[in-house]
Every structure is written in C-alpha cells, then in structure tokens.
C-alpha cells in the first residue's frame, strides 16, 4: 500500500492474560471499537509502529507528487492541466494531514523528513516507476489511486483517532483522483489506434507494480498480526489485492484493454479472479533503492528541502522580528 | 541552529451559523501565513467561510486521566434531561 511492510514489535500478539493491566485495558478499548487519542496511554510498540506507518504513508503522498508533476507542463489541454494541478495539490494536502497525525505521537516534522531523506524511512515502491507518456497519468489515477483507496477506506476505522480522521478527509478527496485517471483512460482508449496503444502500454507497465503496492502475502506475518490486533491494519495484503483485481478487471474490459496476465480467469468457486503474482524479487529490489527512479525521486526531495532552507529560515527570522517589534510597541 | 516552524491548530467555520470546528494542524512561521496555509490545506473544496488559527502551545487540554472526576458527576443527574419527566399525553406537546 502507501505503507508497505511496516514492522511492528516483531513479537507477535500477546494473549490478554499475559498483558500488563495497562496493556490489557488498552487492548480492551480497541476491541470495543474505542478510538485512542494522542495524550492517552499506549504501548510503546503501538506508538512506534504507527509513526512508521503514518510516516511512510505521508512520505508516499509527498513523493507521489513527483511522477505526476512530470506531466503538468505537458498536459494535452488546459483543462487537463488544471485538473492535474488540483490533484497534485491534493497529494501535498494528504501528506500534510498525515504528517500532522504522526506528529501527535511525539515525532517532529523535521525528524520525519530527515528519515525520509537519509533513506531510513521508505515511501511506496510504486513511485519509483517513470511516467513515460500522458496515458501513464491516466493509469496512475485509475490503478495506483484505485489501489490506495482499497487500503484507505478500511483505515478510516483505524483505532488511532488522528489517523482515522486524516483517512476520512483523504478518502473524500481520493475518489476524484481515481475518476480523473479513468476519464483519461476512457479518452485514450476511444481515441486513435495510437492513443489506444498508449493506454494499453501504460496498463502493461503499471499493472504489476500496482499489485505490488499491497505488499507480499502477510498471512503468516507476526508484524501484521499485531497491527491487526491493534486495528492499525484492517485487512491482509492478499484480501486487498484480490478485491482490487476483482474491481479492476471489469473496468479494463469496459475500456477494451487487456490485463497483461494470461493466467487471469474468473474462479466461480471463490467468487473472484485467479491472477498471477507480481515478480517479488523486483519489488525487493525497488525497496532496496534499485528501482528505475529511486535516485531521481529521493534526489528531487532532498534538493527541494535543501534549496528551500534559506526561505524557511528567512520567514522564521521575519516572524521573530515582527513579533519582537510588536512586543516593543506594546 | 535550524528551527522548525511552530505548529498551529486550525478551526474552520463550515457554513454561516455554525461554530468553528477543529480540523487539524499545520506548520507556519506566523499567524498570517498559518491562515494562508490553512486556506490551502483545509479548504480546497469550499469547506469554510472563516478560519481561526492558534499556536498549539497556547492550548490547554484536560488530561485523559482526569476524565472520571471531570465528567462522571453529570452521569447521575438524569433529571437534567427532559425525557426524565413523564408528561401525560392529554397535556399535549410540551
């Protein structure tokens, strides 16, 4: 997802009987569906796992602006350009909601950014793929935002109050993103043979990376089991991936495009599609930093941060001077 | 020494006649910039007609551990609710 392979305590889920009284009371509140709020007692593992997860999610929103930003100046019409600008601005907003949620757990914004820039925190693997044609912008909205929605809708019910509220805001806006992507795909798929070809090519390149967004199967992962007990993860990766495929296949059929998977077939028994797994060795390579655009993406982030330093400091110095002048005048 | 911009809490009045409501927080160097940033971050879709910002450090919050002593005393005062009183149907709407 936007947060992939987030590690929790690694110890697995404790039985209620093995927990300290505080931990037990905490777990029972979560089991009752109560929200946990910033200043309340929480296990250290819960706090740390959430910082990792929300932080990674925030970083993904921010880095996710880069592949799309690539096409703002080259959008085919003024209307498409205005729409894409609005979408990219939304992504910045989503990142900011999430950073704020993470900060309520006692980590500072600068610390989070420092960890992103030094490679200690990750962002979603999907943003390390290039956007080669305009159809890629359609494919990203349709598939990448579509996959993100699969994960974010259930996370609106997550146990941590600020995270849940950020997710609710994000989900309201995300539907626009997916629809604008599909709208681009419809236009291309019904266009000239060359345009349709371009749409098919974008689907071919983004299909498996989109499936990777959900992360490898985690049905046996102790990290996921703990995160699910804490309700900071609601579904397994496989459940979400299946749901995504089942939803997307008819959408591709409507476009007259072909999902690049010869094993794709409806399975009456399970009431869903059978499909091929993505190449997980590619996924691990991308996570390690060896994807097609890792260096470019992180490089752009670090450059923006460093080039903006004088500006951030300047505004702060100005604000301090103004407030000192105001105090002196009083 | 680099300094992080301070944190501000943002309150938005969604429509005329409603209270300002807390929507989230953001970083900004001063109040004026905080309002401008709040406009961009929290009202991209006509969510507001008015914005308040206050530096987070100026907010005093009740402590979660005081929840009992603060809020429980009102639990046993059910007579504060109109439904506590049975008014016969013949009396009509009251």
Description:
The complex is a heterodimer of chains A (330) and B (94). Helix content of chain A is 65%, strand content 2%. Chain A contains 13 helices and 2 strands; from the N terminus they run ααααααααααββααα. Chain A has helices spanning 21-31, 44-63, 65-69, 78-103, 109-117, 134-155, 161-189, 193-212, 222-229, 237-255, 280-290, 294-307, 309-329, and strands at 265-267, 272-274. Chain A has a two-stranded antiparallel sheet with strand order 1-2. The model of chain A has no long low-confidence stretch (mean pLDDT 95). In chain B, 18% of the residues lie in helices and 22% in strands. Chain B has helices at residues 31-42, 67-71, and strands at residues 7-13, 20-27, 50-55. In chain B, strands 2-1-3 form a 3-stranded antiparallel β-sheet, with helices on one face. The longest helix of chain B has 12 residues, at 31-42. The model of chain B has no long low-confidence stretch (mean pLDDT 93). The chains are: A mainly alpha (330), B alpha+beta (94). Chains A and B meet through helix 4, helix 7 and helix 13 of A and strand 2 and helix 1 of B.
List keywords for this structure.
heterodimer, A: 330 residues, mainly alpha, two-stranded antiparallel ribbon, 13 helices, 2 strands, B: 94 residues, alpha+beta, Ubiquitin-like (UB roll), 2 helices, 18% helix, elongated, Ferritin-like_SF (chain A), Phenylacetate-CoA oxygenase subunit PaaA (chain A), Aromatic_CoA_ox/epox (chain A), PaaA (chain A), phenylacetyl-CoA 1,2-epoxidase activity (chain A)
């Amino acid at each position: 997802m936007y947060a992939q392979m987030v590690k929790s305590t690694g110890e697995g889920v404790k039985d209620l009987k093995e927990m300290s009284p505080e931990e037990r009371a905490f777990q029972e509140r979560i089991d009752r569906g109560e929200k946990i709020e910033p200043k309340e007692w929480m296990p250290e593992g819960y706090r740390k796992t959430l910082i990792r997860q929300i932080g990674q999610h925030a970083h993904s929103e921010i880095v996710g602006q880069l592949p799309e930003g690539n096409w703002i100046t080259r959008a085919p019409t003024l209307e498409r350009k205005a729409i894409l600008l609005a979408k990219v601005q939304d992504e910045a907003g989503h990142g900011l909601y999430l950073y704020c949620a993470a900060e309520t757990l006692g980590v500072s914004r600068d610390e989070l950014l420092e960890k992103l820039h030094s490679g200690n925190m990750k962002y979603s693997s999907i943003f390390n793929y290039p956007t080669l044609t305009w159809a890629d912008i359609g494919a990203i909205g349709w598939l990448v935002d579509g996959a993100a929605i699969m994960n974010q809708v259930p996370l609106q019910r997550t146990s941590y109050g600020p995270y849940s509220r950020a997710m609710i805001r994000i989900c309201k806006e995300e539907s626009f993103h997916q629809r604008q992507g599909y709208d681009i795909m419809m236009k291309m798929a019904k266009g000239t043979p060359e345009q349709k070809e371009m749409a098919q090519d974008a689907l071919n390149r983004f299909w498996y990376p989109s499936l990777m967004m959900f992360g490898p199967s985690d049905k046996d992962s102790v990290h996921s089991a703990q995160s699910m007990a804490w309700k900071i993860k609601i579904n397994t990766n496989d459940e979400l991936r299946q749901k995504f495929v089942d939803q997307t296949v008819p959408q591709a059929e409507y476009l007259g495009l072909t999902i690049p998977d010869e094993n794709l077939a409806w399975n009456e028994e399970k009431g869903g599609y059978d499909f091929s797994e993505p190449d997980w060795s590619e996924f691990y390579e991308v996570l390690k930093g060896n994807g097609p655009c890792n260096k470019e993406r992180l490089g752009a982030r670090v450059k923006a941060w460093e080039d903006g330093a004088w500006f951030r400091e300047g505004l702060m110095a100005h604000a301090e001077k103004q407030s000192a002048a105001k105090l002196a005048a009083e | 020494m680099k300094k992080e911009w301070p944190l501000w809490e943002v309150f938005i009045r969604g429509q005329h006649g409603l209270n300002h409501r807390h929507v989230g927080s953001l970083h900004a160097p001063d109040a004026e910039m905080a309002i401008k940033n709040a406009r961009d971050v929290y009202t991209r879709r006509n969510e507001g007609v008015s914005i308040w910002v206050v530096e987070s450090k100026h907010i005093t919050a009740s402590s979660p551990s005081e929840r009992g002593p603060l809020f429980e005393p009102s639990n046993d005062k059910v007579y504060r609710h109109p439904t506590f009183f049975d008014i016969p149907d013949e009396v009509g709407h009251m």
